[in-house]
Amino acid sequence: MLGFSSGLPLALVGHTLTAWMTDAGVDLKTVGFFTAVMLPYSIKFLWAPLVDIVRLPFLDRRRSWALVFQVLLVIAIVTMASIGPSKSRVALAACALTIAFLAASQDIVLDAYRTDILAPDERAAGTATFVTGYRIGMLASGSLALVLADIFPWPVVYGSMAGLISIGIIAILLAPSPPAVTPIRSLEEAVTAPFRNFFSRSGAILALVFLMLYKLGDAFAGALTTRFFKETGFTNTELGTFHSGVGLFATIAGAFLAGWLQPLLGERKSLLIFGSLQALTNVFFVILAITGKSLPLLISAVIFDNIAAGLGSAALMVFQMSLCEARFSATQFALFSAISSVGARVLGGFSGVMAQSLGWPLFFGVTILIAVPGILLILVLPRSLAEPGNGESAR
Predict the structure, then answer these.
(1) What CA–CA distance (Å, rounded) separates 37 from 57?
(2) d(Cα 72, Cα 4) in Å, to the nearest integer?
(3) Pairwise CA distance, residues 13 & 97, whole Å
(4) What 3-state class would DSSP assign to 291?
(5) Structural domains of the chain, ranges and CATH numbers in brackets
(6) I need a labelling partner for 283 at 20 to 30 A (CA). Which of 61, 95, 107, 315 fits?
(7) pTM
(8) What long-range pairs does 57-62 form, CB within 8 A, spacing at least 24?
């Protein structure tokens, strides 16, 4: 339920908002500028220390903040529904930016809550469950909202999406409190102590490099798969059915498979095996690029690639949780999450240049090699990286 609440707002300021603006006749240039409202998701670690230090006078330090952000999200989404693209573009942009900020802040709290509440041997299954809820939330505010928009006016659609946030509100009221920790005494401690805590560990820099590289090959390939499929000759219907629809359920299956396998394999073996599978599934794209359009190959590529992505993402999230100290879990998890996306955002922009110069078969072959450094780093990461009390769940 909390995963659902976390995933729901994303499309409301992304693809679904783009569809509403397009229907309202907003020009392409303005629609393009609206992508900037997603910025809070990338810089949320900047205000994460406030969530660690400021304690509200009800519930506990995690659930109280989650409840505040969820209630404010309802208000902001209803406000957006009442404004719409036809009244004021500036007001709509401000509203969308507010929703993105509140959603990113909710993610900070829920990531920290999940880190605090789950025992080491529960993290893989807990992460899989959260990811499933997240994907269903994205599906509700994406595909479901678009279907509803063909039946009801857009303000009604956005109002109904605001109502669905109540699922997260109910969940946070029913959820147990995380274990008590020693209070943080000052803002200076909230800002600096999480970094001192992490960088005092042997191999801390190596861990950050690993976080940047682990999903890099997958990110390079994933950035251009839709363009590749289109150039290979697949129709929008085929892509919508298999690339988006089947891919979504394959990712969920991968996350649940990780929840079952990770406790059996242990944290490091899971990272190694799942990371290797994540890279090797790009072989399907190489074959497809060589042989040309083939629906069975497309289905195989989408299923195996998304299962592997689900496995790898779940393993990486569990590893990030093991690095967090309970007092600073909001700040540290937000930082680790940002670091793990830096490589894809900074270097992933070169994927188009690579594909244009190398051609599709060689490009996807190179994405396999790009994944190798991140996989090899797993072999040299010190076991002492895990924060005492948050240690690895197995061998």
Answers:
(1) 31
(2) 17
(3) 8
(4) helix
(5) 2-174 (1.20.1250.20), 187-385 (1.20.1250.20)
(6) 315
(7) 0.77
(8) 59/172, 59/177, 60/177, 60/178, 61/178, 62/109, 62/112, 62/113, 62/116, 62/177, 62/178
